[in-house]
Amino acid sequence: MRRLPLIPIFLLSLVVIAGIFAPWIAPHDPEKGELRDRHIPPAWSGGETAIKTVVESLSINDRGSSVTLKDALEIDSTAQIGDQMEVYVTPAGSTKFLLGTDHLGRDVLSRVIYGARISLIISIVTLGVGGSIGIVMGLVAGWYGGFVDEFLMRLVDVKLAIPLILIALVLVITLGQSLWIIVTVLCLFIWPRFARQVRGEVLQLKHMDYVSLAKVSGASTARILFIHIFPGTINTLIVVATLQVGIVILLESTLSFLGAGVPPPTPAWGSMVSEGRDKLAGGVWWTTTFPGLAIMITVVSLNLFGDWLRDTLDPRLRQLE
Amino acid sequence: MATSTRIQTDVVLKVEDLRTYFRTRWGTVKAVDGISFDLRKGETLGIVGESGCGKSVTMLSLMRLIPIPPGRIVSGKIILDGEDIVQVSEKEMSKIRGSKIALIIQDPMTSLNPVFSIGDQVEEAIRIHQDIPKRQVMSRALDVLRKVNIPAAESRVKDYPHQMSGGMRQRVVGAIGISCEPQVLIADEPTTSLDVTIQAQYLKLLKDIQKDSDLSIIFITHDFGIVAKMCDRVAVMYAGRIVEHGSVRDIFNNPSHPYTEALLASVPKMDQVVERLFSIEGQPPPLHDLPVGCAFADRCPVVMDKCRMEYPTQATVSDGHTASCWRVGE
Amino acid sequence: MQKYLARRFVLAFITLLSVSLIIFIMSRVSGDPRHIYLDDYSTQEDWDRMGEVLGLDKPYYQQYGLFLKGAFRGDFGESVREARPVTEVVIERAPATLLLGGVAFVFSILIGVPLGILSAVKRGSWMDTLGKLVALIGQSAPPFWLGIMMIFLFAVKLGWVPPYGKQDWNSIILPAITLGWYYAAANLRLVRSAMLDVLDSEYIKLARAKGVSSRTVILKHAFRNALIPPLTFAGVTIGALVTGSLVVETVFAWPGLGRLAIEALFAFDYPLLQGVVITFTLLYVSAAFIVDVLYAYVDPRIRYA
Ligand SMILES: Nc1ncnc2c1ncn2[C@@H]1O[C@H](COP(=O)(O)OP(=O)(O)OP(=O)(O)O)[C@@H](O)[C@H]1O
Ligand SMILES: [Mg+2]
Asked: Do B129 and C211 touch (CB under 8 A)?
C-alpha cells in the first residue's frame, strides 16, 4: 500500500475550508475595492522607481524603459517628449492586502478565497448531476446491451468529435451567463466518463452468481441494478469522481477565462486570470499568478489524491487516464 | 579412475549452491536458497514442486534473466561448458543465451511478440548468433520450423502469432529454442496450457529432437505423469531448495522425503496426464520468513523435534539418490 | 482489414451526421437567422424574400436537408461580419491552426514518448521523477494560465520570443508548448504504463532468452507494443488539440480557426461559427480515421482480424 498523501490532503482541506468559510476568512469584500488601491503588489514586495524616457506612444520593446507623454503629464505637467523622469514603477506592498490588489483595487487574497467557494459549488453540483446521469446511463447500457448500448457508445463518439467548448460558449452566449447554464454545460462534459466506467463494471458484474440469484428470486430490474450492482461499482466511482473534479475545475476556469463563465463580478479563478492578463506586460504579475496557482495546486492535489485512492481502492484501474 | 573422468566430461551444466534472493518490502524473499545439481549430456532432468517453490526463478537464474532489482544471484556457481556464467559480463551472457542455453517459457499464448511475424522471430534468434547471409538465415529458419513439425512452414512464416493455435505457437517457441543447437534446453512447464493430445505430441517432438541432437533438457513440471514419460532423473523442490534427488525409478519406487511421498500420494492413480494436482494439507512457509529448521516440518506427518531446530543434511539413500531429511538412514 | 476500415469509415460518417444535426438544431434554437442578416430598416418584403432564399418557409426536415446539401458542397452561407462566403474565410484561417496543431502534436510525441519509455525502463530514477513532474504539471495547470505565465517570463521579461501573433518562426514556440504540454503529459503516462506492462511480458522474456541485447529488446520488441495504447489515444488527442486551439489561439492572438470561432461567437456571426464547428469536426474525424489506419499498421491483430 502507498503512503497517505498528506500534503495533497492538507492542501485540499485548505481549499474546502476556504470555500465553506469564505465570508469569515476573507479579509476584504471580494467584489468591492477602492480605485486608489489599484495594483498594489503583494505585501512582501517593496516599491520600485525607475528613470524612464518620455515618448509619444509605447511599443512592446519600449515597455520598462519608457512612459507615454499622457502618463508623464499626469505626474509632471511640464513633461516633454524625450525627457528623462523618475517614475513609480510599482507602489510598495502593504500587509493590508497580503497578495496585492487588482485593477479595481480589490483584494486578490479575498478573491482567491471566494474563488474556492465558486469552484467548490460548481464541482459538487456538476458531479452530483452529471455523475448521476452518467451512472444511470451506464447501468442501463451495460444491463440491456444491444441497441441501447450501441447508441450510448455513439453518443460518446460524438461527444469526442464535437468541440464541446464551442457549443458551451454558444449556449452561454445565447442563453445568458448563469451558474446553472455553466453547470449544465459541464455535465455534458463529464457524464460519458461515468457512463463508460459503470457500463464496463456492469458487464462484468451482471454474470455474478449473486446477481443471477436475485434475478431468479424475482427482484425487479431497478432493484437489481441499484441494490445489487451499483454498490459493486462504488469504489471505482469514487476514484473516477476524484479525478473528474480536477477536470471540472479546469473546464470551469477555461470557460470563465474565455468570458463564458460565472458572470462578473463574482470572483472565479479563471476570470481573475483573464482580467489580469492585459496588465502582465506592465509588471502586474500577482493578479494572474495567484488565481492560476490556486487552480493548479487544487488540481495537482486532486490528481495525487486520486492516484492514491485508485491504488488503494482499486488497483485494476492503473490504466485509467 | 577412468570412469570418473568420463562422468566429468559428460556433465554439460553444473550448478553449485545457487542462491537467488529478491528484496521486497516484506523482507528478503529467498526464492532459490542453495541449489546444486548436475546435468549430463543427452539426459532429461525433471524439476517438480508446488507452485511458488522457486522452479521458474531457478531457471531464470540459469539464463541470468532475473530482474535486477529486486532480484540478485547472491552466491553460487553455474558452470556451463567449463565457464562460470554467474561471473561473465552481460554482453558475454547475451551471446551465450540462445546459443548454448535456451529457454522455452511457461505460456505459449503470450511468449511470442504479437507485432512480429513468426518468421521474423525465428530468424532473429538465428541472426543474433550466426553471421550468415540473409538467404541462409531464412532457410535455416524454415529448417527448424520443419523440425518442430509446423505444416506448410514456407507459407506460415508470414503469419502472426494471433493467427496460430496454441499448440502451433508453442512449437514456434520450441523452434526458437533449438534454432542455434544449444547444449541445454530449459522447458518451463511448456505444456500446461495445451490440451492433452497436443501435449502428448509436443512431448514426443521434444524427445525426438533430443535423440537427434544429444540435447540436455531441464524439464519443469507439476505433472508426475510427464516426469515418468520424459525424464531420466528428478529433483524435487520445496521452498527454494532441492529436498530429494534421484533417478525416476528411485523417486517413484522409493520416495525418501515425506514431501515426495505426499506429492506422489496426491497423484490420482489413473496413470493419465493430469494438471494441477498437488493437494497436501497446509501451506508452504513464506519464502521471506523461512524457519530455521526443515521448511516442511509444519506439514510433515513424521516430524521430530530435531526437524524444527536444524536444517537436515543431505543423506544418501542409495547410489545417486539423496534426500534432505533427518529420517533417512535412521 | 477492409472490414475494419469500412466499419471505422461508417462510424466516422455517422458521427459527422450527428454533429451536423446538433449544429442545425442549435442554429434554429438560437433564433431566426434573418435577425442577423437584416436590420431594422428592412421591409416585410425583404424578410419574406430572405426566408425563401434561406428555405425558412419549408418544414424543418427539409431545411435540414438543404443545410446538409449545402454542407456537402462546402457551402455554409455568408459570413455576416466579413460579408463573404464562410468557406473562404475558413480556408484562409485553417493553415495557421493546422500548423500550430501539427507542431503541438509533434511536440507532445517527442516529449511524451521518449520520456515515458525512459521513466518505465529506469523506474524510480531521477528520469522517472522528472517524467512524473512533467506529467503532473501538464495534467494540472490550466493551459491558458501556463501560456500567460510563459509569455510573461519568456517574452516580457527575457524577450526571447514575441509575446503574441504569428510573425517570425519563433513565435510558434510558446503556443505549441502550451497546446502540446497536456498531451505530452497524457502520452507520457500512457507510454510509461504500457511499457511497464510490456517489459513484464513473457515475449520480452523470450526475446531476452534468445540472446537479444537489452537495448534492442527495448527499442525493437517493447517499443512497438508500447506504442499501441498511445496510438489509440492519438485520436482523442487530435480532437482535443482542436478544442485547445480555442484557448491557446486566444491567449497568443494566433490567427487561426480557434480565434476565428471566438471572434465569430462574440460578433454573433452564426453562419461563420457553424462553418468553423463543422470544419473542426471534419478535422477531428479525418484525423481519427488516419489514426485508425496507423493503428492497424502497428498491430497485426487488427490488420488480419
Ligand atoms: N520479481 C520478483 N520479485 C519478488 N519476488 C519474486 C519475483 N519473482 C519471483 N518471486 C518469488 O519467488 C518465488 C518463486 O517463484 P517461481 O516463479 O520460481 O515459482 P514456481 O515454482 O515457478 O511456481 P509455478 O509453479 O507457479 O510457476 C515466489 O514466491 C515469488 O513470490
Ligand atoms: Mg513457474
From this structure: yes
Where exactly are the structural domains of chain B?
Answer: 11-100+182-323
- Provide, as residue numbers in chain C, all residues whose Cβ is less than 8 Å from the Cβ of B176: 206, 210
For position B4, what pLDDT does the model report?
A: 41
Query: Measured between CB atoms, does C288 come within 8 Å of chain A?
Result: yes
List CB contacts (< 8 A) between B114 and chain C: 203, 225, 299-301
Ligand 2 centre from C256 Cα, in Å? 58
- Please give the Cα distance from A39 to A279 (Å, whole number): 9
Q: What is the pLDDT of residues B183-231, one digit of tens each?
A: 888 888 777 666 777 777 778 888 888 888 888 889 888 778 788 888 8
Q: What distance in Å separates residue C132's CA from the closest CA in chain B? A: 21
- pLDDT tens-digit series, residues A238-276: 888 888 888 899 888 888 888 888 887 788 888 888 888
Which residues are close to ligand 2, an ion, with C-beta < 5 A?
Answer: B 56
Binary contact (A288, C149; C-beta < 8 A): yes
* C209 neighbourhood in chain B, CB within 8 Å: 63, 65, 97-98, 102-103, 105
For residue C65, name the pLDDT band (cuts at 50, 70, 90).
confident
Quick one: closest CA in A to C197, which residue? A319
| B233-238 and B241-247 strand pairing | antiparallel
Tell me yes or no: is domain C93-303 CATH 3.30.70.240: no
Distance CA C185, CA C177 (A): 12
Mean pLDDT over C100-107 rounds to: 89
Highest mean pLDDT of the ranges A46-55, C118-127, C137-146: C137-146
CA end-to-end distance (rounded Å), chain C: 6
Q: What is the pLDDT of residue B279?
A: 60
Q: What are phi and psi of B273, to 5 degrees?
A: -70, 125
Residues 6+ apart with CB under 8 A from C248: C100, C143, C144, C147, C175, C178, C179, C254, C258
d(CA C77, CA C62): 17
Nearest to B183 by CA among B104, B102, B83: B102
Q: Give the residue, out of B21, B25, B29, with the most ligand 1 atoms within 8 A of its beta carbon, to mutate for a pocket test.
A: B29
Average pLDDT over residues C125-152: 88
Decide: B125 and B98 in contact? Cβ < 8 Å.
Answer: yes
In A, which residues are within 8 Å of C143 by CB distance? 254
The answer to whether residues C145 and C182 touch, using CB atoms and an 8 Å cutoff, is: no
Note the pLDDT tens digit of each residue in C26-53: 777 766 666 666 666 777 777 777 777 6
* pLDDT for residue A89: 66
Q: How far apart are the CA of B57 and the centre of ligand 1, in A?
A: 6
pTM of this prediction? 0.76
Whether residue C145 and residue A174 make contact (CB cut-off 8 A), yes or no, is no
Which chain B residues touch C if contact means CB-CB below 8 Å?
Answer: 60, 63, 65, 90-91, 94-99, 102-103, 105-107, 110-117, 124-125, 128-129, 160, 162-163, 173, 176
Neighbours of chain C (3+ CB pairs under 8 A): A, B
Of C205, C211, C224, the CB nearest to B95: C211
Centroid of ligand 1 to alpha carbon of B43 (angstroms) = 26
Is the domain spanning B11-100+182-323 CATH 3.40.50.300? The answer is: yes
Ranges under pLDDT 70 in chain B: 1-9, 106, 108, 192-194, 267-280, 329-330
Residue extents of the structural domains in chain C: 2-72, 93-303
What is the per-residue DSSP string for B198-261? Answer: HHHHHHHHHHHHHHHHT-EEEEEES-HHHHHHH-SEEEEEETTEEEEEEEHHHHHH---SHHHH
Q: Cα(A131)–Cα(A236) distance, rounded to whole angstroms? A: 13
Could you read off the pLDDT of A166-220 as tens digits, one per residue?
Answer: 878 877 777 777 888 888 888 888 888 888 888 888 887 777 777 777 777 777 7
